[in-house]
Every structure is written in C-alpha cells, then in structure tokens.
Amino acid sequence: MNIQFIDPTLVSGWDEDILRFPETSFFHSASWAKVLKESYGYDPEYLTLMDSGRLTAVLPLMEVSSFITGKRGVSLPFTDYCEVLTVHKESSNVVFEKLKQQGGKRGWKYIELRGGTDYLGDVPPYTFFYRHELDLSIGADKILRNLRDSTRRNIKKSEKTGVEVRFEGTLDALYEFYRLNCMTRREHGLPPQPFRFFASIHEHIISRDRGRVALALHDGKVIAGCVYFHFGRSALYKYGASDRRFQHLRSNNLIMWEAIKRYAGEGYGQFCFGRTEPENEGLRQFKTGWSATERIINYYRYDLRKNTFMPAGERISSAANKLFSNMPIPIARAIGAVLYRHVG
C-alpha cells in the first residue's frame, strides 16, 4: 500500500475516481476543493491510500493556519459533512494514524473530522448536527403525497400568491442571492461570507453545471433564493436566504419544492438538505416536513498535544450573535471578509 498527501485540484480524473465510493458526496469533489483553496488560501492535504495503483481510501483535509485561531487540520472547512472514503473499513484506522503523524510534524493543535462515527465508534463527539436526506427515486408525485400537510399548504399558498421561481446560472443571479444572504446572516447574528467565496462557487461549480441558483420573485422583486450543488446522482441544498418582510408568502417552500421536482425529474437519486444546528428547531421542523430521513452528523476533534479526543465544546455565544445582528451590513461584510479564513 502507498500512502500519500495530495492536492485533488491538481489531479486529473479525481472526481471519476472518488465516485466509485458509496459514501462520496459533493464535498469530496475537486470543485469544492478549488473553492476553499481559492477563496481562503487553505492548503489541501488529502490523505490517500493506493493499493496496486487503485485508490482505496481518501480522507479530505485542509490545513488552516491562523495567527488568531492557530494551526490545525480540518476535514473540511465550511463543509457540512465529509466521511472518510474507504474500500475496506479497517483502512480508516490506518489513515487516521497516518494523519496524526502528519499533524504532529506540521505543528497542528488538533485535527477536526466532520463525520467518522462508523470507525470511531463510541468516541464522544466534540459537537453534532442533524442531516436530512430525501429519496428522489420514488418520483415527484409520491414525494408530494408524503409531505407534511402544512408543507403542501405552504407550497400551494405561495403559488396562489403569484410567487415565481427561476433557476439561473449567472453571476448576477448569485449576487441577488448574496444580497439576501447578507440580510439573513444578520438576522442570525452572523457576518456574511465574503463575496469572493460565492464568485469562486460560480466559477468552479455553477458555471460548470455542478450547481444552480434558484430565485423566488414576487411582483418582479427577488424575495428569496437558494444555492444547490449536485455531484454523481446526489443533489445538495447548501445555502438559503430570504427577505423576512415577505415571509408570509412562503416562498422558501416553493423554491425547495421546485428544486426537488427538477432534480427528481433529471434522474437524481438523493436530495440532501444539509446540516442543521440542534438548537435551530424551526429549521429542523422545516426539513422534516419534506418526509426526509434524519441522521446525526458527529464532529470530532483530536488534540495532538494531549493525544486524546476533545470533549464537547461550546457554540458561538449569544453575545456575539447579538453584536452581529445589530451591525450595519457593510461593516459586517468587511469583518466577514477578514474573519472567515481564520474560523474555517
């Protein structure tokens, strides 16, 4: 066996190779690696295991080096989940041991894994999120019948009030989404991501037909938007935003339904709603209303100085949320442009 650390953005045929693994997601793709590398300057160090010239294991990882938050290895920054890909389950332990050695050499404080319960077993997670998945293979008609009654009513209400959904792939459409995203992030008490991040998403994902922007319009005004990615036979809802003044029109329900219909009609087998924080019960209820299957995503942190997994940590404080929720958007954007690469 041959173990190497590689940069998938420089490897020809990377996506074709990883699509052979059952657990492969969009987040394992070279497109996502390019976005993170270009937007935040992270160094991709994907640990790969080769056997007789064949890729048999992959642990995606990027080094985050910050004078504010320190130096660590993350699999992967700004990523909902990222399982180790293996042909044989026992390879996961070999890969992780090699990763610890690499972390020690590089001077990382810790290694963060976003997934890994299958091989870490009873190790306590540092934190956790919910993940919701919908089977698209049953077809749009059956999916519609399986929806929660309130979800179906909200879709019909949005249609009756004249909300229109458009799918677009232009940078202008993404900027319309970003305008709404800045508003929504402020409501959640978070700074918005820098626009260069979304510009990179357009260049490496949307313009290459691996994603799409959905915009909801009412009386010609964009009132809500979503960004979706797709890879292999799976589709992913990654970002959503809306103008709270039009919440009564239930445009978020209509956008999601139109996206699900489209992906089901195009032959995709699975639709993922992304991760949900456990304290965000409203978003969790919205996703379960689509009859999606709920799973737990465990995040783990391994302290390389103490050679042990770290206990559960605290989330962003309410004081920080309150600060950003009252901050003017231009100032929040400026802070986000500086801050995000340090917190990945």
* Rg from Cα: 20 Å
CATH class of the largest domain: Alpha Beta
The level of helicity is: 25-40%
Strand composition percent: 25-35%
Terminal CA distance reads 32 Å
Name of the CATH architecture of the largest domain = 3-Layer(aba) Sandwich
According to CATH, the homologous superfamily of the largest domain is: Gcn5-related N-acetyltransferase (GNAT)
The count of strands amounts to 16
Category from helices, strands and their pairing: alpha+beta
Biggest sheet record: 12 strands, mixed
Secondary-structure element pattern, one letter each: EHHEEEEEEHEHEHHEHHEEEHEHEEHH
Written overview of the protein:
It is a single chain. This protein has 344 residues and is an alpha+beta fold. It folds into 2 domains: 2-122, Gcn5-related N-acetyltransferase (GNAT) (Aminopeptidase, 3-Layer(aba) Sandwich); 131-296, Gcn5-related N-acetyltransferase (GNAT) (Aminopeptidase, 3-Layer(aba) Sandwich). The chain is built from 12 helices and 16 strands. It is globular and about 60 Å long.
